[in-house]
């Protein structure tokens, strides 16, 4: 009954209303590149009509912006030199795994919102069921499997990220499969090393960022456990390295460096807060280490090692994310939520071994309250958006709202109006959330963070304008130059002017959709062109 109930609850939370809100920028990037894989056999960043770039404004060269906004060729050449993609415009900034999954779903179900998100949501359901099975078999404890699975299915941000058309759920699945294969390998299973290499390779193909710290922890554990025969883990490591090496070369990972939005200390503080609040409270990690030391002789060697590995993965991510990511976003650590739930359940079961009801009581506390996360707030001040409520996890209300009664979706409102009023060849000028327009509409899309073709009127001036005034990270001077060349007629679209649409991170979920002004949607008045503006 337990896995059936957990699976049904997960399916309800992950699949309900999956198509209510349109894709937002990051989701649309995955979906558009998936659609282009179907069309061209490769995820092309430029299809001859619209351009996809890395939305990192800190990497933008503001001094040369005027030299690349007047033609498609100039814009594409700049981003080839910057390294967003190769000379053939094939996307290499992310591995292709997520695009292949999206392409397969779009091929079968058509180019719709549900088709884009459905495989990723189903992967999250599968991850939860595999997690339940793995904990049951590995720890011989149905109680621990129930507790850890309950913690995971009621982790609001794990669910919200699992509903995205993005690599988050795939990364969580292959983290789970890699851990399963690792335990098989370490227990002497005949096919354990092969399963581990295949699982880790597949993980690299969907998320080549998070895989490294976890592999570091696992191989360190393997060396320490088999230090008398180091050639055994070396063989496995060499096999994995040989399989990954060609893709490291293809994706140019040796020279990959992201421009940073903030300093390392600030990213470390944000990432530490996210992990402590939404992955696993750090007091749980300390309690797991203390319990393992206190019950050292009573625990099996395998259990001691798994707890060490789980603690190591959490601590490695605390350091790794601020070191390599442009910002300390929750999306870079949320795939480790199963590991956090495993640690929490293990502490509850070991600490309340004589009274299982107490373990369930502790689980309720972890699900409903942030009490165990609060001690770190003394040293690591919560961000301004964090709700000052020590009695209840506010993100549970966010989860209920997003799944069952979502706020007005700005992308749906804007795109549906454009679909009814724009001809397929009309050019649309937009400053941000340009990729959803590429997924849902056939039109040429000008703008975005890259300001692609904003001032290129070789094929005619823009017919429609979509401006989010709330967005600070775009080349506003370029957009204003082009906007001021024409006169515009405002459209009756009451879409809330918030920065992001269906952004699952807390900075997206905590936007105020009710008090926001309306996005500026306008139609160009024919015959209102002015003289060429000064550049």
Structure in words:
By secondary structure, this protein is mainly α. It has two domains: 25-111 and 407-524, no CATH class; 114-404, no CATH class. It is built from 21 helices and five strands. It has a five-stranded mixed beta sheet, covered by helices on one side. Helix 19 (434-440) links the parallel strand 1 and strand 2 (445-447). Helix 7 packs parallel to helix 17 and helix 15 runs antiparallel to helix 16. The radius of gyration is 24 Å and the shape is globular. It starts with a helix and ends in an 11-residue tail after the last strand. The relative contact order is 0.12.
List the helices and strands and how they pair.
Elements: H1 2-15, H2 25-40, H3 72-82, H4 97-109, H5 113-139, H6 142-153, H7 156-162, H8 168-186, H9 192-206, H10 211-225, H11 231-250, H12 264-279, H13 282-294, H14 301-324, H15 337-351, H16 356-368, H17 394-404, H18 410-421, E1 428-430, H19 434-440, E2 445-447, E3 464-467, H20 476-483, E4 488-490, H21 506-509, E5 520-524
């Amino acid at each position: 009954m337990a896995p059936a109930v957990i699976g049904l609850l997960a399916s309800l939370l992950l699949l309900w209303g999956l198509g209510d809100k349109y894709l937002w920028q990051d989701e649309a990037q995955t979906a558009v590149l998936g659609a282009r894989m179907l069309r061209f056999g490769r995820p092309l960043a430029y299809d001859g009509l619209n351009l996809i770039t890395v939305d990192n404004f800190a990497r933008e060269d503001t001094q040369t912006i005027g030299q690349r906004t007047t033609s498609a060729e100039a814009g594409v050449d700049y981003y080839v030199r910057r390294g967003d993609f190769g000379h053939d415009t094939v996307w290499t900034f992310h591995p292709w795994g997520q695009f292949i999954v999206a392409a397969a779903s779009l091929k079968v179900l058509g180019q719709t919102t549900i088709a884009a998100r459905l495989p990723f949501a189903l992967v999250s359901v599968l991850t939860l069921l595999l997690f339940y099975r793995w904990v049951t078999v590995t720890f011989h404890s149905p109680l621990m499997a129930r507790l850890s699975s309950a913690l995971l299915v009621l982790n609001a941000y794990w669910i919200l990220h699992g509903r995205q058309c993005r690599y988050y759920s795939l990364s969580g699945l292959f983290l789970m499969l890699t851990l399963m294969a690792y335990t098989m390998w370490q227990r002497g299973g005949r096919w354990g090393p092969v399963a581990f290499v295949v699982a880790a390779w597949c993980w690299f193909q969907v998320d080549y960022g998070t895989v490294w710290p976890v592999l570091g922890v696992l191989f360190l554990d393997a060396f320490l456990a088999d230090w008398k025969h180091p050639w055994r883990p070396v063989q496995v490591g060499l096999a994995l390295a040989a399989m990954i090496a060609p893709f490291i070369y293809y994706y140019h990972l040796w020279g990959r460096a992201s421009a940073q939005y903030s300093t390392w200390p600030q990213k470390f503080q944000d990432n530490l807060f996210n992990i402590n609040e939404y992955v696993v409270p750090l007091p749980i990690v300390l309690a797991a280490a203390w319990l393992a030391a206190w019950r050292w002789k009573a625990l099996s060697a395998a259990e001691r090692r798994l707890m060490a590995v789980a603690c190591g993965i959490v601590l490695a991510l605390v350091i790794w994310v601020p070191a390599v990511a442009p910002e300390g976003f929750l999306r870079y650590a949320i795939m480790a939520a199963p590991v956090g739930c495993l640690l929490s359940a293990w502490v509850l079961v070991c600490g309340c071994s004589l009274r299982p009801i107490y373990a369930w009581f502790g689980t309720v506390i972890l699900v409903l309250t942030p009490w165990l996360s609060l001690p770190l707030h003394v040293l690591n001040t919560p961000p301004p958006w964090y709700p000052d409520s020590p009695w209840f996890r506010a993100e549970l209300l966010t989860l209920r709202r997003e799944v069952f009664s979502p706020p007005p979706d700005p992308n749906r409102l804007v795109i549906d109006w454009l679909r009814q009023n724009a001809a397929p060849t009309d050019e649309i000028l937009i400053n941000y959330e340009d990729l959803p327009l590429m997924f849902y509409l056939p039109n040429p899309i000008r703008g975005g963070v890259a300001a692609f073709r904003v001032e290129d009127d070789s094929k005619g001036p823009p017919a429609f304008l979509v401006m989010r005034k709330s967005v600070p990270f775009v080349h506003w001077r370029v957009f204003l130059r082009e906007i001021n060349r024409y006169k515009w007629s405002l459209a009756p679209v009451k879409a809330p002017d918030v920065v992001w649409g269906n952004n699952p991170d807390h900075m997206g979920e905590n936007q105020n959709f009710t008090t926001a002004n309306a996005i500026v949607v306008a139609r160009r008045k024919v015959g209102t062109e002015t003289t060429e503006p000064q550049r």
